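Appendix B. One record, verbatim.
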Amino acid sequence: MGFRRRLASDGTPLESVDELPPWRQLIPLGLQHVLAMYAGAVAVPLVVGGALIGAGKLNPGDLGYLVTADLFVAGIATLIQSIGFKWFGVRLPLMQGCTFAAVAPMIVIGSQCGVTAIYGSVIAASVFMMLLAPLFAKLVRFFPPLVTGTVILIIGLSLMGVAANWVAGGLVTDDGAPMKNVALAAGTLLFIVLIERFGPAALARISILLGIVLGTIVAIPLGMTQWDQVGDADAVGVSTPFHFGFPTFEVSAIVSMCIVALVIMTETTGDILAIGQIIEVKIDSRRLADGLRADGLSTVLGGVFNTFPYTAFAQNVGLVSITGVRSRFVATFAGGVLILLGLTPKMGAIVESIPQPVLGGAGIALFGMVAASGVRTLSSVRFNNRNILVVAISLGIAMIPIVRDSFYNAFPDWFQTIFTSGISAGAIVAIALNLLLNSDKQRAIYEAEEVEGVSAHDAVRETPQVHQAAGDAVHDAPRIPEQQRTPEQQESTSDSRR
């Protein structure tokens, strides 16, 4: 399919994702996607690179190279996912970036075995992902609206911690976020709201971009912008394969990264199904497999070009929900911008100079929209006792590592890899509980109970079964408890007793 759009006989796109906006809309919408994910995209190489520099495995000058390599491959990964070709790419407006799920394992691998062992395990895990994709995609039936809505809600809530750290300027400490930062973030958020309320439709669609621009302008006289790195950055820089040496393949590192690959596939599945819900495009198992294989291919490129595993970015899902623009070509343009930033470190340094509190203010709106999209998906679910329990327990388990990040420190590394990510933990629990409580057999039993008059919304009590008395006038019908009888039935019973 690729760039070829599926058109009806009258020339209109068969799917909203194949709509091609004019350049005057495509450019600002694409830039908006880049700004929404830029801080998150460079965070992984900054964190992993900083840890490996501290461990003596990298030189300080390698950090900038990791960032530009990440942006370059993120752009290629986004093109693969949005344009697509045979067997690869979901062809939806998804942005790709390095996953946070692999940060802790990669730091451990790099510190113990060296940087080349990271890239060896990344390449091995990517092959594992591509081989597993068709089987994993057949599990799409385990993601009904109850599960997808819960996962989307968890994604939005879990990302709020990222927005809070951005507002604080990096990390919220015991002293709290600086008031100046909070004021700048609140001002950025206010700009976005005012543009949405009073701006014309054309401006409202790029409210996030305009809010970030206005917030940055306000930050300049406050001395909250840093432009020093712009002058120091090279005008052109090209990432070369195996810059740090040929990859080495350690068995323990590969096993650890394959576990991470399962987490990545779970998160990507949730993101793909979420974007499908938002833009009203049906996601079948074949399309999902193409998207998962694209993640695997992008991760191969990550290992070759000295960067890390890739997945769909949830914050851009929220941006699609806010703008209402469903075209995949917006993501395609944004992918091209990322490639350009990866080849021109100076341009990347300009974007990197945007104050984090500005991104934090915009992030509150973006991540909140992701959570709201989950609530919208759940609104189509019939909430009986079992469904309420699925959402409640999944949400609770997912929030544990978010509110207490050290909760699982005493557990094995493989367990921490899965459950310290609230998204993957919540998704696993939601799928398991839905299978346990909403199997075909359980659903049939539950529907029979409802027909017999058992309350579907009583979470703690079931109506006791009432046995027929020997002297009842009607022996063939079960006795209905008095509190469940209609007024006519109660009147009839009263008459018979008189």
